[in-house]
UniProtKB/TrEMBL annotation:
<protein>
    <recommendedName>
        <fullName>Lipoprotein</fullName>
    </recommendedName>
</protein>
Length: 228
């Protein structure tokens, strides 16, 4: 009788130990915020996710993206910020690729570290990344920002550069704002691809490139006097 009782208790303990991890996984599940492009790319068989929580800085993110680009893979970025998992996509070409990519008919957004160029286009006027939502609203209020004959915005081409002197937390914070604000404006307009966006991870800042010098002044032209 004691043997039967001990066997029964042992089964209960084993069953409880097997169920506990599953329950913990359910309790510890974090909410996810994913971009439309990430969900589409994830369907591809050669898709790979880069977990940037384990990387040191922005430059390390670019190196991983370049490696996957050289392997002709689709890839996305995933990280945890404020108890939420963020998933999005980005682009950084293969260093060995000599082709030139051209992007026409886009809404360009330039971000350096945790600041972005204002919609007015003045390079000297940088605003905090937390104002990105207001900038997107300004873009959406301009009829020239829309695709021709369609109530859909031209894609946003985001030129992103973050100095390696900042840790990976700076990169995560900026990517969190980009993901949240674009998801917000798309949800307001009822379409996930109302305002598609692409992030170009760059090893230098376009905002640091000096403007070309002004053209030389035209020579003064004197009227020709007619001689009788």
């Amino acid at each position: 009788m004691k043997t039967l009782l001990y066997s029964f208790i042992l089964l209960i303990l084993l069953f409880s130990c097997e169920q506990l991890p599953n329950q913990e996984n359910i309790d510890n599940a974090l909410p996810e915020v994913s971009s439309y492009q990430f969900l589409e790319f994830k369907k591809e068989s050669n898709f790979e996710t880069i977990a940037i929580d384990t990387l040191q800085n922005f430059g390390a993110v670019i190196k991983n993206m370049e490696r996957l680009s050289c392997e002709d893979k689709y890839f996305g970025l995933s990280f945890t910020e404020n108890d939420t998992i963020f998933n999005l996509t980005g682009y950084s070409g293969c260093p060995d690729d000599t082709s030139i990519s051209c992007y026409f008919n886009v809404n360009r957004i330039y971000i350096k570290n945790d600041s972005l160029q204002s919609y007015s286009g003045a390079i000297e006027k940088m605003i905090p990344i937390q104002h990105l939502g207001a900038e997107l609203e300004q873009i959406s209020n301009n009829e020239l920002s829309f695709r021709w004959d369609r109530n859909v915005l031209k894609p946003a081409m985001i030129h992103l550069f973050i100095d390696d002197k900042f840790g990976i937390e700076k990169t995560k914070s900026v990517l969190k704002e980009i993901t949240r604000e674009f998801n917000k404006i798309n949800s307001v307009h009822g379409a996930e691809n109302y305002f598609p966006y692409f992030i170009h991870f760059e090893s230098y800042s376009w905002l640091d490139i000096p403007a070309p010098p002004p053209p030389p002044a035209l020579p003064e032209i004197f009227p020709v006097e007619e001689i009788d």
